[in-house]
Amino acid sequence: QVQLVESGGGLVEPGGRLRLSCAASGFSFRDYAMLWYRQVPGKERERIAVISGPGGTTSYVDSVKGRFTISRDNVKDILYLQMNGLKPEDTAVYHCAKGIQWFGYESDYWGQGTQVTVSS
Length: 120
Hints:
The chain is an all-beta fold and 120 residues long. Helix content is 0%, strand content 50%. The strands form two sheets. Strands 2, 4, 5, 6, 9, 10 and 11 form a seven-stranded mixed beta sheet that branches. A hairpin with a 4-residue loop joins strand 7 (68-73) and strand 8. It is globular.
């Protein structure tokens, strides 16, 4: 079955950086878009980045554009999110998700999430 396992979260000071990873299994990774979402308690889950199956097309929400980079390794079946210039408002649980086609904004499976806390 589809499994998505995130790692790499933690506590970082404002202006710092983190790289999140998402290990995928149970499906043909290279054939599907992958997405990153984040969620703060009491707020709706926010989609922040998407990457196409081959990896050549990406899209970001305005609040992270220029600071975050989504990428993927289709040999190792791992999705990444490089986060630079972190701000306190980036504090959230970050989830990776599998898309339903090679590129798009709909997801059908999510990982359990990894906590990112930006604080001094």
